[in-house]
Amino acid sequence: MLVLPAPAKLNLFLTITGQRADGYHLLQTLFQFVDFGDTLSFSLAPQGQLSLIDGPADIEPEQNLIIKAARLLQAHTHTQQGAQIKLTKRLPMGGGLGGGSSDAATTLLALNHLWQLGLTRAALAELGLRLGADVPVFVHGFAAFAEGVGEQLTAVAPAEPWYLILWPDISISTAGIFNEPELIRNSPKLALADWLSGSHPQGKWRNDCEPLVKKRHPEVAKLLGWLVEYAPPRMTGTGACIFASFDTQQAAEQVLAKAPSGVSGFVAKGCNQSPLIRALALR
Ligand SMILES: C[C@](O)(CO)[C@H](O)COP(=O)(O)OP(=O)(O)OC[C@H]1O[C@@H](n2ccc(N)nc2=O)[C@H](O)[C@@H]1O
Ligand SMILES: Nc1ncnc2c1ncn2[C@@H]1O[C@H](COP(=O)(O)OP(=O)(O)OP(=O)(O)O)[C@@H](O)[C@H]1O
Question: Distance from the CA of 273 to the CA of which of 8, 146, 202, 281 falls in 20 to 30 A?
Fold first, then answer.
């Protein structure tokens, strides 16, 4: 049996610089992983059979990105092998932490290993992009400045602080936010060096989705207003998760302990190498 993590990602900043003809948005974002996420276990099954244990009840197995990733790999390689997959879900869905994309990436890497397919990381990332814009960064597993729809990656090494990650009890549809006419889509495109030097005219850590998400989801606005009393808060992806960085685990835990009722969260360490890649390298 192969047991592997599917970590969360944070968008340390996110700007939208345009939109493609197919509706997808052009982004500039900084991805970093944290050492907290879902866990997936894989074992071999005969005759191409695929099954998922403990998938979220509100997602049909065939709609789950884990089964979609496995089927994509089977179709691409014509393998006759199957797998039984068990999911331990910890990341909130529709939280902006990329949980579904991370599950898909872990599935692609795990089955490539288990089925001995020999596909390269680049080939898996290309397949993964068909499942979601966030899948390639999880397949490559290094902290990255991303452009395009989030798939053009340049490795970077930002500081690796402790993060407090919090969310109100809501789920936000990524497509819903990207479809809103009011969304900011014309931010200036900057060179990576300008981002890193902090010379962005609109602020180094901005997230263009945040004003709209705050407007549509007052719970997020309220939580940002609460966290700012302790540390500068940011939002990841299209929300609903928000986060702040701390020098120590203890400092982050102390704020978590004070979180208002109805708010969930965890403390995790930022990591520039994904825990998934680390776990695979140790095998
Ligand atoms: C917002 C981010 O989380 C930032 O990391 C990602 O770009 C979202 O990535 P994701 O969840 O993997 O998104 P996908 O499953 O590919 O797309 C969901 C929906 O979001 C919109 N979408 C997504 C990514 C993107 N660059 N432009 C978009 O317009 C599209 O309407 C799409 O139908
Ligand atoms: N294994 C899975 N885990 C979570 N969501 C899944 C999974 N498979 C399919 N989905 C669907 O994908 C949607 C987005 O899930 P995900 O957890 O990736 O959201 P997110 O954290 O907002 O991601 P992002 O930051 O990429 O927007 C869910 O609302 C759910 O319907």
Answer: 202
